Each structure stands twice: as C-alpha cells, then as structure tokens.
C-alpha cells in the first residue's frame, strides 16, 4: 500500500498513540499502515476501536471522580 499521490510504501504495524481526556492520558498500540520514515498512518476497519475503548475508560474514570 502507498500514500495517495506518493510512492512511499506503507507497512502494517502498530505504533504507540496517546489518548487524552480532561488531563488524563492513556497510551495504546494503534494498528495501521505506516511508512518507515513518518508517524503518519492510515487506519482501516476496526483499527480505531482501541482508541475508542481508551477514551471510554478515561471518560468513566473522570465521571467516577466527579460524579
């Protein structure tokens, strides 16, 4: 796979990604297609599910502290 309009090859892998909500942060391993020389990537299918789950966890923690 390549970036649209580019010849850079993308490879399937995982990269650390920080999810932040109201001052709390959680680092997840985000699957996607990434070039070797950049942090940019393309995410398909359920790749973003891990970030959604992390955000829900952070929201629940915040609500528990302030509820």
Please sum up the structure shown.
This protein has one helix at residues 49-66; strands at residues 11-21, 24-34.
Stated plainly, the CATH topology is called Ubiquitin-like (UB roll)
Helix-strand string: EEH
Mean pLDDT across all amino acids: 90
How does CATH name the architecture? Roll
With strands numbered from the N-terminus, the spatial order across the biggest sheet is 1-2
The gyration radius over C-alpha positions equals 15 Å
Task: Note the overall shape.
Answer: elongated
Instruction: Give the low-confidence spans.
Output: none
Number of domain units: 1
Quick one: how many beta strands? Answer: 2
How large is the count of helical segments? 1
* First and last CA, distance: 46 Å
Provide the fold topology:
Layout: E1 11-21, E2 24-34, H1 49-66
Antiparallel strand pairs: 1-2
What does this protein structure show overall?
This protein is an alpha+beta fold. The chain has a single domain, classed as Ubiquitin-like (UB roll). The chain contains one helix and two strands. It has a two-stranded antiparallel ribbon. The longest helix has 18 residues, at 49-66.
Q: What labels describe this entry?
A:
single chain, 67 residues, alpha+beta, Ubiquitin-like (UB roll), two-stranded antiparallel ribbon, 1 helix, 27% helix, elongated
């Amino acid at each position: 796979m390549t970036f649209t309009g580019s010849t850079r090859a993308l490879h399937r892998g995982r990269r650390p990604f920080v999810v932040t909500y109201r001052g709390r942060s959680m680092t997840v391993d985000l699957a996607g297609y990434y070039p070797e020389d950049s942090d940019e990537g393309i995410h398909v299918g359920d790749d973003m599910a891990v970030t959604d789950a992390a955000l829900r966890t952070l929201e629940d923690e915040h609500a528990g502290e302030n509820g």
